[in-house]
Write a structure and sequence with these properties.
Belongs to the tetrahydrofolate dehydrogenase/cyclohydrolase family. Helices cover 43% and strands 17% of the residues. It has 290 residues and is α/β, with parallel strands linked by helices. It has two domains: 85 residues, Rossmann fold; 129 residues, NAD(P)-binding Rossmann-like Domain (Rossmann fold, 3-Layer(aba) Sandwich), CATH 3.40.50. The protein has a six-stranded parallel sheet, with helices on both faces. A hairpin with a 6-residue loop joins strand 9 and strand 10. The longest helix has 23 residues. The N and C termini lie far apart (43 Å). The structure holds NADPH dihydro-nicotinamide-adenine-dinucleotide phosphate, 5,10-Methenyltetrahydrofolate (GUE) and magnesium ion (MG).
């Protein structure tokens, strides 16, 4: 039976560390770090995430500036808001909750964020810095996954890692991070042939697909470490209820792997803790505090 990697507990520790860092920052800077979260429209899942980010900010002693705009907001108005937040000295980090309504060009909006305030790590500047080994913000979800992997495995050098998914916000930055750790990295996606075989060679599997329980236990190399990024809401056994499952068939994986992250309670809480971590780092950098 594999170990369950307790992302929720690890995230709680990281949040406590950030809280202490915030106190030290405030003593020197005379102000708290500030995070601006922009939500456009009424997507219920997005509203839940934004609420938990706000709560986490406040608990860590940070300022949270919430901007909830109606779904009909024009791209120009949203870009104008980003411009204001870029110029606002009280704002250290800017997060624009994705997805945006269809009439708004996501790339254009993300690119408008000052890279020094890009605590999500989504701008081209941040992605380029990560890819070329320069200092910058790393996307929160892959950063959280890396922290869990290093905590569990120590040195990752030489390990074979398969990432399933190649999105700009999870799969690609995850690949860059693991490459930096000297893993031998394979990125699988919807055109990958014989995914089971590809996964079967991996010491580390990161699943970021968005398909409930698609990675089967029998595909895994015995003793593998499995990081499940997927958040899928599916019907529960009880009539009319839903539950969250990951992209990995958890019970099966527990029979073969050495360690597996659960959903919920795995990667999700790490994403929010890393957002706070990045926001504190942004604030320190902007104030010239080591
Ligand atoms: N825990 C957290 O904090 C977060 C969780 N998530 C969750 O992680 C999951 C992935 O998110 P995200 O990266 O944004 O998703 P995207 O939809 O942007 O990307 C999904 C990726 O999976 C690949 N894929 C789809 N079907 C298959 C298949 N059958 N076999 C192999 N690969 C496949 C796609 O390939 P192709 O490129 O060829 O289409 C694509 O690269 C979702 O469940 C999301 O909810 C996301 C962000 C944060
Ligand atoms: N600009 C932007 N940045 C993001 O980081 C971003 C985004 N947009 N859009 C949506 C995705 C998704 N995401 C999650 C964050 C926390 C949990 C999380 O805490 N999940 C809990 C469960 C929460 C529940 O019960 O619904 C858990 O896994 O334990 C999940 C998913 C961040 N995202
Ligand atoms: Mg869109």
């Amino acid at each position: 039976m594999a170990d369950i990697i307790d992302g929720k507990a690890f995230a709680a520790g990281l949040r406590e560390e950030v809280r202490e860092g915030v106190t030290a920052f405030a003593a020197k800077a005379g102000r708290a770090p500030g995070l601006a979260v922009v939500l456009v429209g009424e997507d219920p899942a997005s509203a839940v995430y934004v609420r938990s980010k706000h709560k986490a900010c406040v608990t860590a002693g940070m300022e949270s500036f919430e901007h909830h705009l109606p779904a009909e907001t024009s791209e120009a108005d949203l870009l104008a808001l980003i411009g204001q937040l870029n110029a606002d000295p009280a704002v250290d980090g800017i997060l624009v909750q994705l997805p945006l309504p269809k009439h708004i060009d996501e790339t254009k909006v993300i690119e408008a964020i000052d890279p020094d305030k890009d605590v999500d790590g989504f701008t081209t500047a941040s992605a380029g810095r990560l890819a070329t080994g320069q200092d910058g913000f790393v996307a929160c979800t892959p950063l959280g996954c890396l922290m869990l992997l290093k905590d569990r495995l120590g040195d990752l050098s030489g390990k074979s890692a398969v990432i399933v998914g190649r999105s700009n916000i999870v799969g690609k930055p995850m690949a860059m991070l693991l490459l930096k750790e000297s893993c031998t990295v394979t990125i699988a996606h919807s055109r990958t042939q014989d995914l089971a075989h590809v996964i079967g060679g991996a010491d580390i599997v990161v699943a970021a697909v968005g398909r409930p329980e698609m990675v089967k236990g029998a595909w895994l190399k015995p003793g593998a470490t499995v990081i499940d990024v997927g958040i899928n809401r599916v019907p529960a056994a009880e009539e009319g209820k839903t539950k969250l499952v990951g992209d990995v068939a958890f019970d099966e994986a527990m029979e073969v792997a050495a360690a597996v992250t659960p959903v919920p309670g795995g990667v999700g809480p790490m994403t929010i803790a890393c957002l706070l971590h990045n926001t504190l780092a942004a604030a320190k950098r902007r104030e010239g505090i080591a």
